[in-house]
Specification:
The protein is an alpha+beta fold and about 450 residues long. The protein has helices at about 10-15, 25-30, 50-60, 75-80, 90-105, 110, 120-125, 150-155, 160-165, 295-305, 310, 320-340, 355-360, 365-380, 405-415, 445-455; strands spanning about 1-5, 20-25, 40-45, 70, 135-140, 145, 170-180, 190-195, 205, 210-215, 220, 225, 230, 245-250, 255, 260-265, 265-270, 280, 285-295, 345-350, 385-390, 395-400, 425-435. The strands form eight sheets. The chain has a four-stranded parallel beta sheet with strand order 2-1-3-4. A four-stranded antiparallel beta sheet has the order 21-22-20-23, sandwiched between helices. A three-stranded antiparallel beta sheet has the order 8-17-18, with no helix packed on it. One zinc ion binds near residues 200 and 256.
Length: about 450
């Protein structure tokens, strides 16, 4: 049914609706409407503040949060970006909501109902609304200036969730909305740009017309050249009659009231209004503000359910955190630079088709393939080998004291875990051996990023 949340003036509309409807008048007192039975919500009020409050509370709920919410009249961007549009009649809301609900029925209901699963809930929300764009909205009151109101209303951790989905290429930017500069110390975007004296860094500077005496080369503010209504150089006392012949206007036209320094261009500095750090403009971090849409990969990923749990099966290997893995790798690289005989190898394994495979053969089947894969990899690695998993779903094996040929063998054995046809996991591997493939000065972070690039999508 269409669940109305309305002001008394719209009472008739609910009563005469041609579709199943339930009207709620005092929602503020009775709490939120019972969402389970509602196909969608229709907010019938002319009060934008009231509508905004209600839309926020509906979006924050686990069950009602993902359902379509319509308005009966346009109430401004802040309300509308949380809703699914304006409709003229309850019947129109009903028709539109049926389409959205049909798309929801293609998704994993357990994932959608899990209030802690921000990633899947946002994927699901977007999946059921193919034309929806996550648009950032900027306001000076917001600590980060730009927020994504829909994501903020729907999720616990909106920023992290969007970043994760972008990194996994499930969301792609559709439009560059703005570019902000952030403080390099605290990442705050509220900055005050101020012109300062390049000599003493004081802010008390003034722009003045200047003159330049050709006879002695003196440069000073114009006011110092006035002497009984004539222009006379304050240094050499020459009377200046003809511009271009006796004097001209130099480029310098700023003077510091603090130290007297005369200059052409003031120095611009940025003072952070969050932490008071003063930075040169080129030290600030520029970051784009973008609108995002679900990608084809994102649509597929929504339909197959959250595959994170499948990948997390890899964590039962000799897994350590990424940070620890990097620090050990850095240590091994440094050791190997000093003592060439301290060789080691690194192998990256990417399972390229988990999402597609889940779509094709189902989650249970993929889990058992993954289980088998993990069991076989465990047999391959020694207790001294370390593994980690990055957010890109790449499995890393760090093999101390392993020469290039040994590394090749490990890779071949891993590739041997594939099934011959395309019914199994599709594996891609890349290897690195130190010292033979070491690049001067390359650190662990860079090395991992480079290999991750080589191993591809
Ligand atoms: Zn100065
Ligand atoms: Zn002079
Ligand atoms: Zn700061």
């Amino acid at each position: 049914m269409v669940c109305f949340v309305l002001d008394p003036e719209f009472k008739d509309l609910a009563a005469k609706a041609s579709v199943p409807a339930q009207a709620l008048e005092n929602y503020t007192e009775s709490g939120l409407p019972d969402a389970a039975a509602a196909l969608c919500f229709l907010i019938a009020t002319r009060d934008a503040a009231k509508a905004l409050d209600l839309a926020r509370r509906l979006r924050a709920g686990t069950d009602p949060g993902l359902k379509p919410i319509y308005l009966l009249s346009p109430l401004g961007a802040s309300v509308e970006q949380l809703c699914d549009g304006v409709v003229a009649t309850p019947a129109e809301a009903w028709d539109k909501a049926l389409g959205t609900t049909r798309l929801f029925s293609e998704l994993d209901p357990a994932g959608l109902a899990d209030s802690r699963n921000d990633v899947y809930r946002l994927l699901g929300f977007l999946y059921a609304r193919p034309d929806y764009t996550l648009v950032p909205s900027g306001t000076w009151q917001a600590e980060k200036i730009y927020t994504y109101p829909l994501a903020e209303a729907l999720l616990e951790q909106a920023d992290d969730t969007i970043a994760t989905l972008v990194q996994r290429k499930l969301l792609a930017p559709t439009q560059l909305v703005d570019r902000l500069r952030h403080c390099p110390k605290c990442d705050g975007p509220h900055l005050n740009y101020i012109d300062t004296c390049p000599n003493c860094a004081g802010i008390d500077i003034a722009q003045k017309p200047f003159l330049h005496c050709f006879t002695c080369g003196h440069v000073s503010p114009e006011e110092r050249f006035f002497s009984q209504d004539k222009l006379v150089c304050p240094q050499c006392a020459t009377a200046l009659r003809h511009i271009g012949a006796d004097y001209d206007r130099p480029l310098e036209n700023f003077q510091c009231n603090g130290c007297g320094h005369v200059f052409v261009d003031p120095q611009v500095t940025a003072r952070c209004l969050h932490c008071h750090q003063v930075s040169a403009p080129d030290a600030l971090i520029a970051r784009p503000v973008q609108a995002f849409k679900l990608t084809d990969q994102g649509r597929l990923s929504a339909r197959t359910g959250d595959v994170e749990d499948v990948f997390s099966m890899l964590d039962s290997l000799n897994n350590v955190s990424r940070a620890y893995f990097e620090s050990i790798l850095d240590w091994l690289l440094a050791l190997c630079r000093r003592h060439k005989e301290e060789q080691f190898s690194l192998v990256a394994v990417r399972i390229a088709n988990v999402v597609e495979l889940t779509d094709r053969i189902g989650r249970a089947q993929v889990r058992s393939l993954m289980d088998e894969f993990v069991r076989r990899v465990r047999e391959l690695i020694r207790t001294t080998d370390l593994t980690t998993r990055t957010s890109q779903h790449t499995l890393w094996l760090l093999l101390p004291k392993t020469h290039a040929a040994g590394q090749q063998t490990v890779r071949e054995r891993i590739m041997g875990l594939r099934s011959g046809d395309d019914s199994g996991l599709r594996l891609v591997t890349v290897g690195f051996h130190a010292p033979s493939q070491m690049i001067a000065g390359e650190r662990a972070k860079m090395l991992l990023a480079r290999l991750e690039g080589e191993i591809g999508e």
